[in-house]
Amino acid sequence: MSDDTLAPARPAPAEARARTLPSHLPVAAAVAAAIVVALVLPLYVDAFWLRIGLFAMASAVGALGLTILFGAAGQLSLGHAFFVAVGTYGYAFLAGDGGGQLGGLGLPPLVAAVLATLLAGLCGLLFSPIAGRLRGIYLGIASLGLVFLGHHLLLNLRPVTGGYDGRSVTPFALGGFVFSDAGGLVVLGVPFGAVENLWYLFLAVTVVAVLVARNVLRGRPGRAFRLIRDSEVGAAAMGVRVQRTKSAAFVLSSMYAGTAGVLTALAFQRAVPDYFDLHLSIDFLAMIVLGGLGSTSGAIIGATFVVALPIVLARYADVLPLVAGPGQEGLEASIAAQFVYGALVVVVMLTQPGGLRAMLHALRDRRGPAAP
């Protein structure tokens, strides 16, 4: 008997392509369907749900930055809220007209948004020497100081921040078109206000942020980040410049947070200091842990869940048990939401460390046809 008889038959190239092609088709179809739904959503959905989407997309961009820093590079940061605040107030100051007691440079909104993002990156660069020398809980404690420092500055730099009362935000404008209720745009009989106009702006920024993050994580920087996360000694032995790479991860994460801050300013249309506290940093950690550490899609899923849950609970507090509406006695919607996703973090870590993303993939695989 010859060796050719014992050797397994190799599938023809066409057959091999036919076997691998169906595995990619559901993913491509799901992405295409999601894009189509996102594009037509403002035509059919109430402004309440669109506003939740704006907050979710703004948070998703910030969560992507923390995914790169913590999920990929293993650098714990509790100061993410500080860099989001830099982006928010940076845009408000740079685009503001400086009228009254508040200062402002009156720059075009697009220029102000780009500079606010770069300003957040510059703050991350100034902190990067510390980030390059610390890791784990030590970096987390060091970055925690940024939140308290930032909150103190926001309350006391009144010409820039407006103090405790905050300051209004200049609407975004591009090419003479203002993303506000006064835009006067009508699409298929549906009047587009600020929320509908901002929806497409936020969607474009989120898509670009996801593509950049995926390319970073799948390229050489992502491999260097993961080597540092697993072993700094091993990474150095492989030729990775550890401190420089850790600093680069912190700067990139800070720029993502600054972009999220600009989107947050546009979504809220006002900057208030009390929003940028330690609770916001913990929310970002909950987003990436719930969604799935190191995953771009997990960051989006986790951000949507953490942002939407308290708002939806508050909306339907009258019909939900144990949840009290505004001015009523009982468990407030925001506190109930913290209990829910706090408990869910524990459950996810015990049962599915891959997060909600891994759970969705497991459900999809169970529903799918068995492999031949």
UniProtKB/TrEMBL annotation:
Its main location: membrane. Keywords: Cell membrane, Membrane, Transmembrane, Transmembrane helix. InterPro entries: ABC_transp_permease, LivM-like. It is a multi-pass membrane protein. One of its GO terms (cellular component) is plasma membrane. One of its GO terms (molecular function) is branched-chain amino acid transmembrane transporter activity. It is found in: Cell membrane. It comes from the Bacteria. The chain crosses the membrane at residues 25-45, 52-72, 78-95, 107-131, 137-157, 198-217, 248-269. The keyword Oxidoreductase does not apply. PANTHER family: ABC TRANSPORTER PERMEASE PROTEIN (PTHR30482:SF5), HIGH-AFFINITY BRANCHED-CHAIN AMINO ACID TRANSPORT SYSTEM PERMEASE (PTHR30482). This is Branched-chain amino acid transport system permease protein. The lineage of its organism: Bacteria, Bacillati, Actinomycetota, Actinomycetes, Streptosporangiales.
